[in-house]
């Protein structure tokens, strides 16, 4: 996903929140399962570095990777954004 598509999606989200656009006009797909370890390894980051970069608890990250816990829908959506646009997420989090 390129930056312009992300911006357009965010504009639609704001319109929905204001009641200017039907929720049906903006559908998203949140994966049921997500391979957190694969995302992290693809980026070449250690667990502590990944958790720190994206504001995650190291304990939570380890539990996800070991299969002890599963990310909730919001976390899965966040992880999907990290997978597709890690630099953008880092930039946004940096303020």
What would you say this structure looks like, in words?
This protein is an all-alpha fold and 95 residues long. Helix 5 (73-84) packs across helix 6 (86-94). The chain has helices at 3-17, 36-43, 47-53, 58-65, 73-84, 86-94. The chain is globular, with a radius of gyration of 15 Å. The protein starts with a helix and ends with a helix.
What distinguishing features does this structure have?
62% helix, 95 residues, 6 helices, mainly alpha
In short:
The protein is mostly helical. The protein has helices spanning 3-17, 36-43, 47-53, 58-65, 73-84, 86-94. 62% of the residues lie in helices and 0% in strands.
What structural category characterises the helix and strand content? mainly alpha
The helicity comes to 55-70%
Count of DSSP helices?
A: 6
The radius of gyration over CA amounts to 15 Å
Which residue ranges are poorly predicted, with pLDDT under 50 across at least 5 consecutive positions?
A: none
Strand content: under 5%
Distance between the termini: 21 Å
Major beta sheet, specifics? none
Provide the residue-averaged pLDDT: 88
String of helices and strands: HHHHHH
Shape: globular
Q: Based on DSSP secondary structure assignment, what is the total number of beta strands?
A: 0
